[in-house]
């Protein structure tokens, strides 16, 4: 294969892991992502209270205040305007944010890789049609496009998945197309054609495996963007709807109390910042580790 780039071999992935291990910021990001993912999965076990349970007699309490609804008897991070435990809502909100980031990127990858592979492999009219559609999507500011889709479909987490996938696939398609345009001219692809292999088999077995590095990096870098987009839509009231906890709609609800109760908006903001920062560190590290030009 081209320049020793063999993503199918175990030695390649071993080299990737060894390079990633040496990148301390990337490993820090990986550890934080794993921790947040684990927290999202076991949120019911970690949460000191039901995130939907209200206690109006203890609304907007500061961190450390006594609580009747928390199992430990304390609002560790304070309470919101309905007396709900902020820590519990942040823990359950991690489920929403991470699921939006991951599921939307799965959809983006499925659509983008398919369209990019078809455009790059066949070229001609197929390439022109797909890329012109992508150019149209690139002409819209992302947030305005998301808002338009959410107005058309209505606010819900499932429609957030659709909105993010509808515009996100264009970038993935352009990335995969550029890779396929180069790889389709390689000798091993010509040899596969000479053996009479079908186009689908050539694309799936011989071309796309060699695109995995850029795709993995793109997905990793796309997850924090999706998390921020969901937070923005929820802040505007177009994403996840109350009372379901979401970091974005928690900040939206806290906007009226930023001066009197600043901790209300600070905690979900910190959660978003740490998650996005960690995914960005991991993405940067994966980009460096998967770059074949770094191989000795």
Description of the structure:
By secondary structure, the protein is mainly α. The chain has a single domain (31-294), classed as MetI-like (MetI-like fold), CATH 1.10.3720. 69% of the residues lie in helices and 1% in strands. The protein has 12 helices and 2 strands; from the N terminus they run H-H-H-E-E-H-H-H-H-H-H-H-H-H. It has helices at 10-22, 24-41, 43-46, 86-122, 124-138, 142-153, 157-183, 187-194, 199-207, 212-235, 247-254, 263-290; strands at 65-66, 74-75. Strands 1-2 form a two-stranded antiparallel sheet. The protein is elongated, with a radius of gyration of 23 Å. The two termini are 17 Å apart. The relative contact order is 0.15. Mean pLDDT is 89; it is low at 1-5. The chain crosses the membrane at residues 26-46, 102-122, 129-151, 157-176, 215-240, 266-286. InterPro entries: BP-dependent_transpt_permease (IPR050366), MetI-like (IPR000515), MetI-like_sf (IPR035906), OppC_N (IPR025966). It comes from Thermosediminibacter litoriperuensis. It holds the Pfam family OppC_N. Belongs to the binding-protein-dependent transport system permease family.
